[in-house]
Amino acid sequence: MNSGKHKQSIVLKPNEGRKYNMGPMTAIFKADEEETNTNYSISECCSALD
Q1: What are the boundaries of each domain within the chain?
Q2: Residue 11 confidence (pLDDT) above 60
Q3: pTM for the predicted model, two decimal places
């Protein structure tokens, strides 16, 4: 059902967002609680290649 309200798009490039380094892996949160009104979460995870 469409409430008639327009939702604003969130557009981020690769590696943009809140970064958390966790040893050999980096988690990048693109959108979560505040940006989506706690409806969903989108993240990117990267690991270093040997």
Answers
A1: 18-47
A2: yes
A3: 0.62
